[in-house]
Design a protein that fits this description.
Elements (H helix, E strand, L loop, with lengths): L2 H11 L8 E6 L2 E12 L6 E3 L3 H10 L9 E9 L1 H12 L2 E6 L11 H6 L1 E4 L4 E8 L2 E7 L8 H18 L3 E5 L7 H12 L9 E5 L8 H12 L6 E6 L1 H10 L9 H15 L3 E4 L4 E6 L2 E6 L12 H14 L4 H18 L5 H9 L4
Parallel strand pairs: 1-5, 1-9, 2-7, 5-6, 9-10, 10-11, 11-12
Antiparallel strand pairs: 2-3, 2-4, 7-8, 12-13, 13-14
Length: 370
């Protein structure tokens, strides 16, 4: 049986349904403006040739050194952003009940999150940050303004919910996904305080934890090693998964003292296995654009992805992978099927700019693209 067919069969046979599960996701929140960089403008509106690669964009900037330059970004859409809201939105599209805690606006939720807030239980603790997402054929540049995320602290959480409220919040969910450590300066302390003061008070349960660091290149190696050590302590209270894209996996792999590896299927599995073993986590998953791999105590797994050369959108693709992978875990699917629900959720999203429903996921699997 091929991988998509196997995954489709596992989805249909799963004892649990997404609506049986509740997730808590946080703690960031961004208003994303998706833009296309203008290369040669001929007329108004979309009558222009875009700058199609990051290399070409870099050359434009280099030529401005010692002079100046006028770079135009043509806005395509404003949308909810941040690793947490995008992942949460994707999980809700699959049917998972959602509690979201994070930076969605203060004193009221920002308009870009209004539809999201109507479908989830939302607890906003500070103003949303802002990102201009510059999209190219070969990647994207995320230009952020995120001062408001300085207010994401354990004291802020406790101030909004109280200690008993925090215990109740975490006690009622099956999945806890805490993402975007890189952009939240106090996130390591939030993790540490949750482990010290909140999780010991939770009733025993089959609880899943999912972490996404979100491009830790701008953080010091010592800070990265510190948060990885704190993440391992969540293992006392549930099964812990660390999700990494290729760049993040390579950074973490090197920070932990290993040697550089490529994105071959064998190297992806080796990176995942090395990181998992070093940190003693339940699962480590690595997802470049073209495939995905994961490692558990009993071995490694790899699947190809439904890669598309001309995506409609790329911002949020990794967060959709995380949602699809977590969906598989919530439903008790095999590691290979979890990887496949991850790449399928992401694959549908980049083709349509829409988060897939469970029915969309099943249709995609049944008609797996060449």
């Amino acid at each position: 049986m091929d991988i998509p067919t196997q995954t489709l069969a596992e989805l249909k046979a799963a004892a649990a349904r997404p609506s049986d599960k509740r997730a808590l996701v946080g703690l960031d929140g961004f208003v994303d403006t998706i833009v296309t960089p203008v290369g040669l403008r001929r007329g108004q509106g979309t009558d222009f040739d875009p700058i199609s690669t990051i290399a070409e964009f870099g050359q434009r900037i280099q030529r401005a050194a010692g002079k100046s330059a006028n770079l135009e970004f043509y806005p395509q859409m404003d949308k909810l952003g941040g690793n947490g809201p995008i992942m949460a939105n994707a999980l809700m599209a699959h049917g998972v009940a959602m509690t979201y805690v994070g930076a969605l606006g203060s004193p009221t939720v920002h308009p870009v999150f209004q539809d999201f807030a109507a479908r989830a239980r939302v607890i906003s603790i500070t103003e949303a940050a802002h990102t201009t997402a510059v999209e190219f054929d070969d990647g994207k540049l995320m230009l952020g303004q995120m001062k408001s995320l300085d207010d994401v602290t354990f004291a802020t959480l406790e101030g909004h919910l109280g200690r008993e409220g925090l215990v109740q919040l975490f006690a009622e969910v099956d999945l806890v996904s805490l993402v975007n450590w890189t952009m939240i300066p106090n996130m390591t302390d939030v993790f540490r305080q949750l482990v010290k003061h909140i999780f010991p008070l939770l009733p025993p349960a089959e609880r899943l934890f999912f972490f996404d660091l979100a491009d830790p290149e701008k953080r010091a190696r010592a800070d990265l090693l510190e948060v990885l050590e704190v993440i391992t302590t969540f293992g006392d209270f549930g099964r812990v998964t660390l999700g990494l894209n290729l760049k993040e996996a390579q950074q973490v792999h090197l920070a932990l003292g290993f040697y550089a590896l490529t994105e071959s299927p064998e190297d992806l599995q080796q990176m995942a296995a090395d990181i998992r073993h070093k940190l003693e986590l339940t699962t480590v998953v690595v997802h470049p654009k073209e495939s995905a791999a994961c490692a558990l105590a009993d071995g490694t797994h790899w699947v190809p992805g439904p890669y598309v050369t001309k995506p409609k959108i790329t911002t949020g693709a990794g967060d959709h992978f995380n949602a699809g992978f977590s969906l598989g875990q919530l439903l008790g699917l095999s590691p290979t099927a979890c990887l496949t629900t991850g790449v399928t959720t992401s694959g549908h999203y980049v083709r349509t700019a829409q988060s897939p429903t469970l029915a969309d996921l099943e249709t995609f699997l049944a008609n797996w693209p060449e």
